[in-house]
Write a structure and sequence with these properties.
The chain is an all-alpha fold. The protein is about 65% helix and about 0% strand. Strand 1 (about 90) and strand 2 (about 95) form a beta hairpin.
Length: about 160
């Protein structure tokens, strides 16, 4: 095989697309890496602290207190029976936040717990980055398969 043929077989459109996507994900990480370490406020920081509060509450309380619903009550006795916004109380005095679905809080809680990571803004930003990167890869794979299927259908129509 000639070097040109080897290169053509290795650098298929799928491989090139995957490389470009990987470079874009890496560039995205490098551009935002400084923000992961910031201590000062940033836009929409309230949502970040809300997520961290909920993850900490899930971590500090037994599962029977919150049933893995987004709780905003921390683990100390003095943290119970304190209403917060439009939260719903449980029998144990924990308050459940009902405006967001549980996976948005339970997924980072599970990852932090399994990997023994601190509940912090930096780790939440890294979690969100990895989640976004995975979603990008899945979307790219889906679109690649869809376009390949459409190309095969088009070739069939032209041939017939």
């Amino acid at each position: 095989m000639t070097p040109k043929l080897v290169t053509a077989r290795i650098l298929t459109p799928s491989v090139l697309g995957t490389l470009v996507l990987g470079l874009m994900i890496f560039a995205s990480l490098k551009v935002r890496e400084r923000d992961f370490r910031k201590v000062v406020g940033t836009p929409n920081l309230e949502a970040t602290y809300h997520a961290l509060l909920t993850i900490t509450a899930l971590e500090e309380n037994p599962a029977e207190n919150h049933l893995f619903l987004p709780s905003v009550s921390l683990g100390n006795d003095l943290d119970k029976h304190i209403s917060w916004g439009l939260t719903a109380p449980t029998k144990t005095g924990d308050y459940i936040y009902t405006s967001y679905t549980p996976p948005g809080f339970v997924a980072p809680y599970v990852v932090f717990h399994v990997l023994n990571l601190d509940v912090s803004r930096a780790n939440l930003a890294r979690f969100n980055f990895v989640l976004g990167a995975i979603a990008s890869i899945v979307l790219f794979s889906f679109l690649r398969q869809l376009l390949s299927s459409l190309e095969a259908v088009t070739k069939l129509r032209v041939a017939s």
